[in-house]
Structures are given as structure tokens and as C-alpha cells.
Amino acid sequence: MPRRVLPALRRDVPLVVAGATSGSARLRPETAGPSPSAVGRWFTGRMPPSADRPVLLVRRPSPRLADGELTHLDRRPVDVDLARRQWQDYVDVFAARGWDVREVDASDEHPDGVFVEDTVVVLGSTALLTAPGVASRRGEAAGTERALDGLGLALERVAAPGTLEGGDVLEVGDTVYVGRGTRTDDDGVAQLAAVAEREGRRVVVVPVTRALHLKTAVTALPDGTVIGHRDLVDDPAMFDAYLEVPEREGTAVVVLDERTVLLSPSAPRTAALLRDRGLDVVTTPVSEFEKLEGCVTCLSVRIR
């Protein structure tokens, strides 16, 4: 369908530190009135997903999965056939709970294409198509854009030369934590902040030097508590509520509902810790993706 281009917030507006404390620095764009923007905005049309049936976007693993980018881990053999079975089991967890599973077009030329979360950030009524921080991942977002058609979201795109990957964005209530590391730069942060402010969110920029993405280091429980591991988190004080977990693989959870989380079985002590907090914990193996710095979060885009 034709795209209807609308004015968007300026991406060349400087960010200022607002309400900074020893524990956080919150960025917001200074307001300067309407102006043409390099960030295009259009609508996918039709109706948004049902409030009681969230949408899951996923993409099948590429035959070249084993060639995926690595930053903090040594390369180990990846069993692509096992990865495909693990991916299907992962998808089945959501389908069994009533999620509307939508498959993004295959992108076999992109070894990291299965990590579809990195291609888009959904905040409120806006989907921001990202710009990867490595050349090998450029082009992955095209399939995601097509999959978003019909969800009633306004689409925007991170404009060059900015870089932003979805794995660096963690939304907790009305706070958006964004990791500033090797894959997301200051320009990408600024463009995300413009969208977040319009959607009524505040942005907290978090340094990421010990992990690939912010959500490699931390994720959040249903009550908003951020969980992480000391080897991966630069500064736990950045988060309003923080819980240390005993295993590196235990930092990644996906919230399935208000009392249930999805976790890798590689973190049994973390699973026990979360159950002691009253949560139901569902596990599904993702070992082949963990070898590539992946986890349960980056294999999907959750739209609620």
C-alpha cells in the first residue's frame, strides 16, 4: 500500500542531560518546533493486534547461521539442524499460549537474520526500523518492514549515519533503557529518544562494554525488576530496581504474561531464584544461539 509520509521530530536536535544523578543520565531532545526530518514516517494501515492476542515476529535460521558475527565469545561449532529444531520449539512456546505468530520473510544471505529483535524497536504506536552496527546485518530490516504491514503501527527508520540495534533497547514501564556500546551509537540513541519522548517515555542511556547488547546483560521481570549478572553489567545503579542472578545465561528472560517468564534451561539456579519470587518459569533450549551471543529475547519481536 502507498506510504503516507508525515512530519517527524527533528533528528538533528541536540540531546541534553536532564535530571542526571550519580545513577543515571536521562536524555531528551530539546524542543524546537516542527521541522522536516530525515526520519521518514508512514502508517501500515488496517487494525492493530487484539489487546488479548499479542503478536510475535520471528524469522527462521539461515543455513549460514554458524557464520554469524561474534564480539565477546570465541567461535564454537554450531549445529544448524539442532538450531532449527530449537527455533521451532521456541516458537511453539508462544503459539501454545495464544500469541499471533507471524513469520518474517527468510533472509538466508544474512547469518544473523534469525535475531530479528535487532531490526525494529516498537514503542507504543510506533515501530522504529533500526540500522545495524555491522555491515553484514544491513538489509535484514526489509523483511521486518513487510511483516509489520497491517499492524496499525506508524513506521519510522533510523537515518544514516546513526546505528541502533533492538537488542540495545529495554522498555520497563515508561522508561526506555538504551545501551550505548559497539552496535548502537550516539546518533542512534538520539533518534530513538525523539521517538520515545513523543510516545511518552523517558530514556536512560546505559554503558555497554562487557556484552554485545544491553539485553545480553540485563532484561526485566514482570514487576519491572531488572536482572543481570555481575560479569556483564557495567553499572547496576543505572536501574531503578536491580536483582543479581547467579548465571550469565540467566540474564535473559521474555515476559509471557504477568506471572510467567521464558528462560534458557542453561540457567537452572536462576530459574529456582525466579520461582522463589513467585514466578512461573518456562524453559526452552537455545544452546546453538547462545554460542552466537544470542538468547531468548533476540529471537523474536513481541508486540503487545
Structure commentary:
- There is one protein chain.
- The protein is of the alpha/beta class and 304 residues long.
- It has a single domain, classed as 5-stranded Propeller (L-arginine/glycine Amidinotransferase, Chain A).
- Helix content is 18%, strand content 25%.
- Strands 1-2-11-10-9 form a 5-stranded mixed sheet. The protein has a 4-stranded mixed sheet with strand order 3-8-7-6, sandwiched between helices.
- A hairpin with a 2-residue loop joins strand 9 (169-172) and strand 10 (175-180).
- The radius of gyration is 18 Å and the shape is globular.
- The protein starts with 14 loop residues before the first strand and ends with a strand.
SSE map:
Blueprint: E1 15-21, E2 24-29, E3 41-43, E4 55-58, H1 80-95, E5 100-103, E6 120-123, E7 126-129, H2 141-148, E8 154-157, E9 169-172, E10 175-180, H3 186-198, E11 202-207, H4 214-217, E12 218-220, E13 226-228, E14 242-244, E15 253-257, E16 260-263, H5 268-276, E17 280-283, H6 287-290, E18 301-303
Parallel strand pairs: 4-5, 7-8, 10-11, 13-14, 16-17
Antiparallel strand pairs: 1-2, 2-11, 3-8, 4-18, 6-7, 9-10, 12-13, 15-16
